[in-house]
Amino acid sequence: MTPTTAPPRPARAPATSAQRAALAAAHGLTPSGARPPLHRYAAQLWDRRHFVTAYATARMQAQYSTAKLGQVWHLATPLLNAAVYYFVFGVVMRASHGVSDYVPFLITGVFVWDFIGSSVNAGTRSVHGNLGLVRALHFPRASLPLSTVVQLFQQLLVTIGALIILLLAFGQTPNPAWLLAAPTLLLMAVFAAGCALVMARIGSKNPDVSQLMPFVLRTWMYSSGVMWSIDQILRTDQLPHWVSTALKLNPAAVYIDLMRFALIDSFQAHSLPRHVWPIAVGWALLAGAGGFVYFWKAEEEYGRG
Predict the structure, then answer these.
(1) Which stretch of DSSP H or E encloses residue 24?
(2) Which of 34, 44, 60, 115 has the most crowded CB, counting CB atoms within 10 A?
(3) What is d(CA 39, CA 222) in angstroms, rounded to the nearest whole number?
(4) How many other β-carbons are positioned within 10 Å of the β-carbon of residue 58?
């Protein structure tokens, strides 16, 4: 007797993309690397705050690990820059004329600018320079540029201690105005973080931007009054209106002026213009919130290509 064979089963039609999406949603699955809602993304980033600080601390400790002087270079680098700027601008170009307490004026500007410029420059490479980490692990990519800012802020706090010692050595006296340095540092850190986030997104898609940043930052530094007084230039030179406005609204110049007003006696003898604090808060909010949203919108794209 010949055995009968079962008739073949009809081929099942493959599931459509809508059916697969519905099945994944039913079991709580989400696409790998999908961008979460903004509030959830912020919560995820907050949950990883310990990673951000630990990663920043490790980077700071490793930065000069092969140098004999080690962490001393965190302080020595801005001081050497200040010495060079003092000779070139203060002595040769006589930018010190008409500026009271020029040495405290200069070193305060150098220390503040070093933090802002380094944050922007490091943020540009923070995502593209860590593609291996981005592609291997799932975490909020904003952790990378923010960790660079935290690292640089930790260095800034160390240099601020040295800055205060230098100011005392050059005849500055502690007074209640020094407390204004704390909110200035906070606003400056928020602004720098926002700029780092913006440049991290741009640099992740256009790595060549990092090659242009030294020229951009050098131009920004020269227009921020690090080595010379913007107020003195505005009083003595007939600049076009748009140039004068740009110099007054320059965020780096605003934060430098606030720090100088807080720490230098001759600045405290004059009233601070009313527009300075609102501009400082406005730049911090604009850069901080705007930079965070701008970076978050491209969360799904980091590490591709």
Answers:
(1) helix 17-26
(2) 115
(3) 39
(4) 12
CA distance 56 to 153: 10
Report whether 167 contacts 103 (CB < 8 A): no
Write out pLDDT tens, residues 39-85.
Answer: 999 999 999 999 899 988 888 777 766 666 666 777 777 878 888 88
- Provide the percentage of residues in the chain whose pLDDT is more than 90: 45
Output the CA–CA distances (angstroms, integers) from residue 206 to 35, 85, 124, 212, 288, in the order listed.
Answer: 21, 32, 9, 11, 22
> Domain spans of the chain?
67-301
Q: What is the DSSP letter of 89?
A: I
How does pLDDT run across 76-115, given as a tens digit for each residue?
A: 778 788 888 888 887 887 877 878 889 899 999 999 999 9
Residue the block writes with tokens 């990519």: 141
**What is the distance, to the nearest Å, from the Cα of residue 55 to the centroid of all Cα atoms in its chain?**
16
Q: Which run of H or E residues covers position 122?
A: helix 102-125
CA distances from 143 to 85, 124, 186, 193, 209 (A): 34, 14, 19, 11, 21
Report the predicted TM-score, pTM, of the whole model to 2 decimal places. 0.85
Q: What is the CA radius of gyration of the chain?
A: 26
**Residues 66, 137 contacting (CB under 8 angstroms):** no
